[in-house]
Design brief:
The complex is a heterodimer of chains A (213) and B (164). Chain A has 213 residues and is mainly alpha-helical. Helices cover 84% and strands 0% of the residues of chain A. In chain B, helix 7 crosses helix 8. The chains are: A mainly alpha (213), B mainly alpha (164).
């Protein structure tokens, strides 16, 4: 006899061995809160959106940005900001659309796909922000070098001392270091989130995909 | 949600609660984890209940939500596998009608099933519940042919675990 058939025989006989929860026990259960990964994904995603919105506002209010506003750079800065908000709205819409598609009554594969899709939206949003941050930093630096009297004076002084290359090198390296730290922190965050929250889901999804090959 | 809906849900869940217990039995190793997963499946069933339109049987619908919760949504609170507690739990729950050899063999079989991965367990669960390959394929989202192929592989894997 097949091992599984032996197990099946026992399994189907075992009905009377399970605890019987009463109506009241079950009623108490439905009042409790879920701790499913979907709930956590929702919370973490919203935190990520809020985080980037705060970052964009925080950067706007800094003294250097105020000084920056005095330059004749509106033609670049305003479109950059508008594009930023349109893309934020688009990602937000996409996130909610995908989130609402998550249904526990779908089949296992579709459920997993919808969860991963929701998470991917947020990941793309963060990647976009990172790209946006890098582009903004480069644009800001170009404008600063072009219009900031202090920096122009420093460049001229460095040029007079014959150290213009060193001056640029320090500037570029500092910027790169700042960006590398930002990317590092984000990668660490993703490694943690994906490891803790989605590790098992990813493993199971891969297992299902493997069957279809 | 209305009281009527609540009442209808709990009544049906009470009647079919063994399905949830059986999912928990395969996916957990001790009583605490069993209760915890049972709780989460109940919440997920309740949350999805307003969308349940009776196209499928309540019990069929429960299989899907129960397995989805166990495989995908549930976050294990305790990560350590307590095999000692598991043995005691299995011992308590097992059928009492077999002789010693069969009893021992069943115990080993249950332990072997516990070593399978989440997806394999789901296939075994549906098989033990006498679901056909069409139902297995619909629940898991894979083709019927692949469900059959995978099931055969799971049987081979179980044999390997039992006779290394």
């Amino acid at each position: 006899m097949d091992e599984l058939d032996l197990l099946k025989k026992d399994w189907q006989k075992s009905d009377s061995n399970y605890p019987k929860l009463s109506y009241n026990d079950l009623y108490k259960m439905i009042l409790k809160k879920s701790s499913s990964i979907v709930k956590w994904i929702f919370i973490i995603s919203i935190i990520e959106f809020v985080f980037w919105i705060i970052i964009s506002f925080a950067l706007k209010d800094t003294k250097s940005m105020e000084r920056f506003n005095e330059y004749n750079a509106d033609a670049i800065i305003i479109p950059l900001a508008v594009v930023g908000y349109i893309i934020l709205a688009y990602f937000f819409y996409l996130f909610f659309k995908n989130y609402r598609n998550i249904s526990v009554t779908d089949n296992a594969k579709i459920l997993m796909e919808n969860i991963l899709k929701t998470r991917r939206t947020v990941k793309h949003y963060v990647a976009f922000n990172l790209g946006y941050l890098i582009v903004s930093v480069i644009v800001v630096l170009f404008i600063e070098f072009d219009q900031d009297p202090q920096i122009i004076a420093q460049v001229q002084k460095a040029a007079a001392d014959g150290e213009v290359l060193k001056f640029y090198a320090i500037f570029i390296l500092t910027t790169m270091l700042f960006l590398a730290i930002a990317i590092g922190v984000l990668l660490l965050f993703y490694w943690l989130v994906y490891g803790i929250l989605l590790g098992r889901l990813n493993k199971n999804y891969r297992e299902l995909q493997k069957m279809e090959v | 949600m209305s009281e009527e809906l609540e009442h209808s849900f709990i009544e049906q869940l009470e009647k079919h609660q063994n399905i949830v217990h059986k999912v928990c039995r395969l996916y957990t190793n001790n009583q605490d984890a069993h209760n915890d997963l049972f709780q989460e499946i109940t919440i997920q069933l309740w949350k999805a209940f307003p969308k349940f339109r009776g196209e499928a049987k309540f019990s069929t619908w429960m299989y899907r939500v129960g397995l989805n919760t166990a495989i995908t949504l549930y976050r294990k609170k305790k990560r350590t596998i307590n095999t000692e507690a598991f043995d005691a739990f299995e011992f308590k729950i097992k059928s009492e009608e077999y002789d010693d050899t069969e009893e021992q063999q069943l115990k080993l079989l249950y332990q072997a099933v516990h070593q399978l991965n989440d997806i394999e367990k789901a296939l075994v669960f549906l098989y033990l519940e006498d679901k056909n390959y069409r139902e297995i394929s619909e629940t898991m989202g894979i083709s019927e042919v692949n469900a059959r192929v995978k099931m055969n592989r799971v049987k081979t894997k179980l044999r390997t675990i039992l006779n290394p």
